[in-house]
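Lecture 7 notes: from sequence to structure.

We start with a single chain of 154 residues. Read the sequence below before looking at the structure.
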Amino acid sequence: MAAMSKVDPFAAIRRDSRAGMSVRALARQHWVSRRTVRSALLSAWPEPRKPLPPRPSKLDEFKPVIDGILRGDLNAPRKQRHTVKRIYDRLVDDHCMLDVSSAVVRAYVADRKPKIRAEAGLGPVEVLCRRRTGRASGRRSISGRSRSTCAANR
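Now the structure, written as tokens:
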């Protein structure tokens, strides 16, 4: 069943009010509060829902540490950069992070790493595609199909 909008009950409340029903009787009949009945009588359109405040995360206290690790990795050689698993292990060992899963850390790192690169003015990571084969054609056969190899696929 689709979610019912508040416009339909507001129209019904306004219709029954024109028939002479009291606010209390309207609230009882339509299963709403008297405040809702009064707002329906003032305006045909219901107030928009207020947005929920952002929920705090257990990762919030460790975000500056992760950002520091990612900023330190900007100048490091590719083989010496921290993997997500290494970042997670450092947080658990060095900062006693016990209540946060590695999936939450992985999602945060995937979100923040490009932003930190952009803040540093480095731009997106370039993917180097080169052909590596033992054959002269630059293609190799895997299970009967010929395909080129790309460094980004490893």
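Strands lie at 140-142, 145-147. Keep this in mind for problem set 3.
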